[in-house]
Design a protein that fits this description.
By secondary structure, this protein is α/β, with parallel strands linked by helices. Helix content is 26%, strand content 29%. The chain is globular and about 65 Å long.
């Protein structure tokens, strides 16, 4: 069963998302359809085991004449499923979800899929702060037909098992960047729902001299802060640029997604503050969506150097040197 991805399914900036509900151990989990390339029946003959690999890494899956990492998500989540038997070739009715994001193709074994649901990001509730720490592998939950569906943070899981997918700098800097003194004065708002990614980017930007960063765990919270900053600027006779130099936003977020956040900033508030989309979902179709809502720039994770170069270009009067 191959998923067709012809055209852009959802209008940009409507705050809607299509979530694939899949099953593990009798429990429902959700995954953004945009990340899913294909759904196929599990075939043990297409799997090559990796000696001494983590139990969450089932092996390498032959997919379209290439091999991709196959993850045993049940082991990662600590759920008893029949996936372990599937890996041994004893059960053949399991399925494989093939995903692509962060420029990496990977796959996970699941017990089955229910269906695709079109929902509003506003219906997805962020996890409680008690649960939303660095150990959490969920970004939120949504109630669908009396079922609570947990949205899996696949970016975190894949980066845990496949280090190449993690956010990183090409090399550790031993001396301050030549632009560090200019970067430190720039006020940046940053919206990202994944606590792990949010903290990683926050720390990297600080190391590179962007130390005045205010982070938000969803687009709605970021938008409320922008409204407050705009109101403060207007009440004091100033300009929003005195409060915010640039906005970085992920696309997938509970309450309000990044496309909607950008659209509301550019069309409803009519602000000139640059908005940069930084997402694992950037491809040709998503780039078109970013442009349609007025984004000033967009960048695919995990290439953090390019993000910093984009910040320099928009924040430092186009005088940035190469990163």
């Amino acid at each position: 069963m191959i998923m067709a991805k012809e055209g852009i399914l959802l209008e940009s900036g409507t705050n809607e998302v299509e979530v694939l509900e899949f099953i593990l151990g009798g429990q429902s989990f959700g995954l953004n359809v945009t990340k899913v390339q294909a759904i196929e029946q599990y075939d043990a003959e297409k799997v090559t085991k990796l000696p001494m690999a983590d139990s969450s890494l089932a092996g390498m899956l032959l997919f379209r004449e290439t091999t991709v990492p196959l993850l045993n998500l049940g082991n990662t989540l600590g759920i008893e499923t029949s996936c372990a038997s599937a890996v041994e070739g004893k059960i053949e009715e399991r399925i494989v979800l093939v995903m692509e994001f962060n420029s990496i193709v990977s796959a996970v074994i699941a017990d089955g899929v229910n269906r695709i649901h079109r929902i509003s990001w506003a219906d997805i509730n962020p996890l409680s702060p008690i649960l939303s720490d660095t150990s959490s592998v969920f970004t939120g939950s949504v109630s669908i037909e009396d079922r609570e569906v947990l949205i899996v943070d696949m970016e975190k899981i894949v980066s845990m098992l496949l280090p190449a997918a993690a956010l990183r700098l090409a090399s550790k800097k031993t001396e301050p960047h030549p632009l560090a003194a200019e970067r430190v004065n720039k006020k940046i708002y940053f919206a990202e729902d994944s606590n792990t990614i949010r903290q990683s980017i926050f720390e990297i930007l600080n190391e590179e001299g962007y130390t005045n960063v205010t982070a938000f765990d969803n687009g709605s919270a970021c938008y409320e802060a922008i409204l407050a900053a705009k109101a403060h600027a207007e009440s004091t006779g100033g300009d929003l640029s005195d409060q915010i130099d640039l906005i970085i936003t992920d696309i997938e977020m509970p309450q309000m997604d990044g496309l909607t956040l950008c659209k509301k900033c550019k069309r409803e508030l009519n602000i000139s503050t640059p908005v940069v989309m930084f997402s694992s979902l950037i491809n040709d179709q998503m780039a078109s969506k970013c442009e349609s809502v007025g984004a000033d720039d967009y960048m695919a994770k995990p290439e953090i150097e390019k993000l910093i170069a984009i910040l320099d270009r928009h924040c430092l009067d186009n005088q940035a040197v190469a990163v």
